[in-house]
Write a structure and sequence with these properties.
- The chain has an eight-stranded parallel sheet.
- Helices cover 51% and strands 12% of the residues.
- The chain is an alpha/beta fold and 468 residues long.
- It has one domain (9-344): TIM Barrel, CATH 3.20.20.70.
- It starts with 8 loop residues before the first strand and ends with a helix.
- The structure holds flavin mononucleotide.
- Flavin mononucleotide (FMN) binds next to strand 11.
Length: 468
């Protein structure tokens, strides 16, 4: 019997049955196919916006127009397949960021997941709100979250609806310096509480909940439970969703995940200047060795990328990988990609995550029970010790008192007898004195009369002698 279920995830006024967001994966790895499958099963599906126009035949003629058309098309396809929650992932650093944003607002995407830069300047907040679209920035620190929220509060009198905090085990471009990826203070377990604390004052002022969604290296139901217990309201997972039937990449891309070993997963320096995690292959080894593999740049899709200095066009390399041409590109992946064993339907993956979560929940209850019993046993043992000690001390006191009584009881008895005799004597003396006083009091009027008579005669004697 399954007793415990994953909690739902609420963002703004929307609630989805599962606290699982499928992370956006460009180029073309998470499109309408994967996003609608995840949304249809109760999670949040996300269409990746970066390089999405590469699906269109005219990308190299008009990249911006192709991106907009492809984004609109994928959102509509996803809508046709599901009424579930479908969001989009847009890179703030993309040169057509605002155009893609406008398209997604027009199409009423359920949410905008905004990463690779801070979504602060020129945000069309009024239009976003009017369209009922949620805004969810992706950050890698509490400081970045605070910066975004402060800016929004000051400039727009509003704040975003949730935050994804992405740790150093994620796939794709990473928001950390390459030499700091292993630092203890950059672990997702540290970042999640940090971001929750940074957002608390904004949630209080805005009077709304701002859920934090943990991402990067979350692999199974046990991991999901761990981050929910740390205070996250949901998790974002990407690597696991690559190895699904519905993932939009070519089967060879998915098989690269199944074939890779831990030592094949590497941190690369991407032409956009950020570190990224990917499966090592000949293409990447050549690039690391300085082999230039640049054919052409369609339209400088990313602000930071300058093809004159780049070893390859990252959009083209990722698009080739999506199409299964892994000798002309490479696959981004999370740190746990080597654990992926098979390609399964999204429904099966989610079902196994739910079962693992339930099992981990029951296990965590059993652990809690054992820890509580252990703590109680310790406390009981300590109390027993204190009790035995107290008993011994009391016995010693009683013993001492008994002995003292034995030694002093005779002299005490004599004291008592003497005191009693004194009291009795005092009583007797008092009675005698009382009787005497009584007698004196009774004879007082008679004595007074006698004295008065004597005085009278004395007075009369004096008068007679004067006359004689
Ligand atoms: C193949 C791949 C492509 C990715 N592309 C993007 C992207 O275009 N934009 C983005 O914000 N994150 C991207 N990511 C990061 C994921 O959305 C996600 O946050 C992260 O990988 C989660 O960690 P996990 O893969 O260990 O589950 C990508 C990840 C992978 C594996």
């Amino acid at each position: 019997m399954i007793l415990f279920r994953m909690p739902k995830l609420s963002i703004g006024r929307r609630t989805v049955p599962l606290p699982i967001v499928q992370g956006g994966m460009g180029v073309g790895i998470s499109l309408s196919g994967l996003a609608s499958a995840v949304a249809g099963q109760g999670g949040i599906g996300v269409i990746a916006g970066v390089g999405i126009g590469m699906l269109e035949p005219d990308y190299y003629q008009d990249g911006r127009a192709a991106n907009i058309r492809a984004m609109r098309g994928e959102l509509r396809k996803a809508r046709a397949k599901t009424s579930g929650f479908v969001g989009v992932n847009i890179m703030v650093a993309a040169n057509d960021f605002h155009q893609l944003l406008d398209t997604c607002i027009e199409e009423k995407a359920d949410a905008l997941f905004l990463g690779a830069g801070l979504p602060i300047r020129n945000m069309p907040v009024a239009r976003i709100r009017a369209a009922g679209v949620l805004v969810i920035p992706i950050v890698s620190s509490g400081r970045a979250a605070e910066l975004i929220f402060k800016y929004w509060q000051k400039s727009y009198g509003d704040v975003p609806d949730a935050v994804v905090v992405e740790g150093p085990l994620a796939g794709g471009h990473l928001g950390f310096r390459a030499d700091r990826l292993q630092d203890a203070d950059q672990k997702l377990e540290v970042l999640v509480p940090q971001v929750i604390a940074a957002l608390a004052p904004f949630a209080a002022v805005a009077g709304k909940k701002i859920p934090v969604i943990a991402a990067g290296g979350i692999y199974n139901g046990e991991d999901i439970l761990k981050f929910l217990q740390l205070g996250a309201q949901g998790v974002q997972m990407a690597t696991r969703f690559v190895a699904t039937d519905e993932c939009d990449a070519d089967r060879r891309f998915k098989e690269a995940y199944i074939a890779c070993r831990p030592e094949d997963i590497a941190i690369i320096k991407s032409p956009v200047g950020m570190p990224g995690r990917a499966i090592r292959n000949r293409f990447l080894d050549d690039a690391a060795a300085g082999v230039r593999n640049v054919k052409r740049c369609a339209w400088r899709c990313l602000e930071q990328c300058d093809i004159r200095h780049a070893d390859y066009c990252i959009s083209a390399a990722l698009d080739n990988a999506r199409r299964g041409l892994l000798d002309q590109g490479f696959a981004f992946c999370g740190a746990n990609a080597h654990r992926v064993e098979s390609i399964v339907p999204v429904a099966e993956l989610l079902e196994s995550l739910k079962h693992e979560y339930d099992a981990a929940f029951i296990q965590s209850l059993a652990t809690l029970r054992d820890e509580t019993i252990h703590a109680l046993e310790n406390k009981f043992a300590r109390l027993r010790q204190d009790y035995v000690l107290a008993r011994q001390q009391l016995a010693a006191i009683c013993d001492g008192a008994g002995k003292a009584w034995e030694v002093r009881k005779d002299s005490l008895r004599e004291d008592v007898e003497r005191t009693r005799a004194m009291v009795e004597q005092l009583g007797r003396d008092g009675e005698t004195a009382l009787k005497k006083l009584q007698a004196l009091t009774e004879r007082f009027p008679e004595k007074l009369a006698e004295l008065q008579e004597i005085a009278r005669r004395f007075q009369a004697g004096i008068s007679e002698s004067r006359v004689g």
